[in-house]
Amino acid sequence: MKSFVWMFFFIFACHNLIQAQNRAESLTQDTTLTKPQIGFVSKTYNFGKIRKGEKIVTSFYFKNTGTRPLKILQVQTSCGCTATNWTQGYINPNALGEITVTFDSGAKSEIVGNQSKVMLVISNALDKEVKLILEGEVVNGEVKNN
């Protein structure tokens, strides 16, 4: 039964990732710009309720909707419990990129309760700084699904 639940979760997660990529592809280019422009499908991800010690991995997909190559220079996090990885190099106009975020709820003892982790994306885009937010709740004990 446990393997069935994990398989269902995996299929559901893959389906959501494909949908997010498709939404990123549908972002339209602004041909009036003379700079790169970063457009995100969503700037917030709510992971719901998890048990203390679990890790959450999610991706924020973006598209260069400007007319010049885009480069992510840095992604700063608000907590040592959050790590990031992103598309390196230049992202051409109309091309997609990805920022992967890993939240480790077991990284620090005080991580319990409502969480809101901010990632600051710094790039050469028109909007040089963009905030992404990872939010949810970390509980001690068992997580009940409603």
Description:
The chain has 146 residues and is α+β, with helices and mostly antiparallel strands. The chain has one domain: Immunoglobulin-like. The protein has one helix and nine strands, in the order αβββββββββ. The longest helix has 24 residues. The chain is elongated. About 9% of the residues have low confidence.
SSE layout and pairings?
Layout: H1 2-25, E1 38-40, E2 44-51, E3 55-64, E4 70-77, E5 82-86, E6 90-91, E7 96-104, E8 113-123, E9 129-139
Parallel strand pairs: 2-9
Antiparallel strand pairs: 1-3, 3-7, 4-6, 4-8, 5-7, 8-9
Whole-number mean pLDDT: 84
Number of helical segments with 4 or more residues = 1
CATH superfamily: Immunoglobulins
- First-residue to last-residue Cα separation: 19 Å
H-E string: HEEEEEEEEE
Instruction: Give the C-alpha Rg.
Output: 17 Å
Helix content: 10-25%
